[in-house]
Amino acid sequence: MVPVEWELKRARKMIGKLDPVIRENRTKIVREEIDVAKLDRQINQNEELLTKNRDEILRLRDDLDSSETHYVYAGRQYTESQVRADLANRFKHYQTLEVTTGKLKKIMDIRRNKLTAARTKVEEMLSAKRQLEVDVENLDARLEMIRVAEASSEFSFDNNKLAQTREVVEDITTRLDVTERMLNTKIELYGRIPLEGDHESLGTITDDVTAYFYGAPITDVALTDRP
Hints:
Layout: H1 4-16, H2 18-65, E1 70-73, E2 76-79, H3 80-153, H4 159-190, H5 205-214, H6 220-225
Antiparallel strand pairs: 1-2
Helix pairs in contact: 1-3, 2-3
């Protein structure tokens, strides 16, 4: 299996490859915006021209309805036939321009819709790219946590050995406690004043001194009189 680290690197490279695609589509969108703006200006000019032509056509029509023998425009005189021919040409041109302008409007609507869709698509790609970057960072953080957990799991602790060692230490402690208590008991026994015993075997220190220096024997009576 491919290591997760390599897969994360691969994912980052794939995310990075989205940038040229996004830039290319942004460039196309800018160009399309420029073209749509030009088309919009052309349509506006056509509409202004249609309004002007319509006013002129209606003026010529009204003049012909007056049944004049001649007509003067811009200081020049024209016959009725000339005016009628000019009116017919103007009207034909007006109709052609009107149809063309209508088609341009439909084209502009289509291109505007495509432009809006393209903008939305680019924004979606940008949003998806940002989310992918966040997802990869989160996965990287999770991988790091797993590494730490795996590293800590390498330390093995034998609880049985720990319990056995604790028992040995407790046993040693108990044995030392017993030994110390026995020694304290013996010391107490050796240090005590005897309260009972053979009264005849005991004497006073003064009697012993007298007998030693003056040779006076310690009689049985003296012994019996000793306290």
